């Protein structure tokens, strides 16, 4: 029963969504709408579970005097301040939560992301070597696209932007389409495996 | 003489090897300078408009005045330098065309706050009022349920907006019960949400859409553009700069393109130098019979 009931629920839910996708305005569609509302509520609980989990993990690190416990203290303080300010004073524009987010968190996250430019430049310089024919082709394509996508590229050679566009829209897109189709087929087959009860890892067993 | 030449070669070799291992502090300093110099002294390099960006502009521009545009702010604060200029330019275009904007976010951390700030600031530029010309629905967990559920009844998914006002009390939302009243979807995203908007909303409800995405996502999104699932595409800061140019309002992205140009150029120079060093030192080792 522990296995059959979740598999049954998964099958019904999956089948419902597939039928509803092709039959707008039908009874199944109406039932699927209700299921979607439930899904957002379940999603809310999943977020709560995540919050509880992160507090537990870091509290454990502090209580066991883990070497990284100071980071955990920092995380829990920030967590409490952000959550507390949101719950007590609201999250709309101009609130304490909004100030903390707009003036501290967002700039910090942007800075972390921007620092990547330094590492990418360093890594590209050290690792990007034309050691074989295929890596030489990759290198050449990268240089053409990088130059062709910036305003300076047209000064180097006026045809570079067109070359860059060709690389992006022909060979690169062919590969992207292959990846997309492969991923979609994989997702479809995985969904079928879950619906039919072949894939049961989400139940905590293989 | 031969020994002397050989000795010179031995002395010359470290230069090519040194080319392959320039101190990263020098590299970082040059990158830092490449960002700072164009900010202080803009180069005003012209940006060529790609067909994808022009198609994006034309799609928004062809919408009749008063049309409702669904505007998902599906990006994290970390990519703000790329995504924010796109969102600002798109909002300016929408408000200038008197389109009504329904904002929302499928990114819990920061999405709704960013949406609120941008909608309010750009709305104020065009004297638009909250509730009549634009609204921010905020965030709800579980993007697939949100995207599909809004097709039936938006109020079921978002009973209230980001500020806590019930949807039935918002004049704009009283006219937008579901996707049937939405003319267009304008996605700004830095993650897989664009795939879901295409796969769930475009495929099922047939809503026309355009997307502004980070540069790294653009090659993948091009395939949606060419299969006409997306009507237009902005790729990274360059896409944003092109859009700013098209709406006749150069801003952050146009300024950022100078820095991006210099950094791209610098990276290419270093890659070429590194490879020159690699080939010359390999040739040198071959001559000496080490390879």
Descriptive report:
The complex is a heterodimer of chains A (206) and B (291). Chain A has 206 residues and is mainly alpha-helical. Among the domains of chain A are: 1-89, no CATH class; 91-117. Chain A has helices spanning 4-22, 27-63, 69-89, 96-127, 133-148, 153-156, 160-169, 171-195. Chain B folds into two domains: 2-41 and 256-287; 51-250, 3-Layer(aba) Sandwich (Rossmann fold), CATH 3.40.50.10160. Chain B has helices at residues 2-20, 24-40, 51-61, 80-96, 111-125, 143-152, 154-157, 171-174, 193-205, 218-226, 236-246, 252-287; strands spanning 68-74, 100-105, 134-139, 184-189, 209-213, 233-235. Chain B contains twelve helices and six strands. At the A-B interface, helix 2, helix 4, helix 5, helix 7 and helix 8 of A face helix 2, helix 5, helix 6, helix 10 and helix 12 of B.
Fold blueprint:
The complex is a heterodimer of chains A (206) and B (291).
Chain A: H1 4-22, H2 27-63, H3 69-89, H4 96-127, H5 133-148, H6 153-156, H7 160-169, H8 171-195
Chain B: H1 2-20, H2 24-40, H3 51-61, E1 68-74, H4 80-96, E2 100-105, H5 111-125, E3 134-139, H6 143-152, H7 154-157, H8 171-174, E4 184-189, H9 193-205, E5 209-213, H10 218-226, E6 233-235, H11 236-246, H12 252-287
Parallel strand pairs in B: 1-2, 1-4, 2-3, 4-5, 5-6
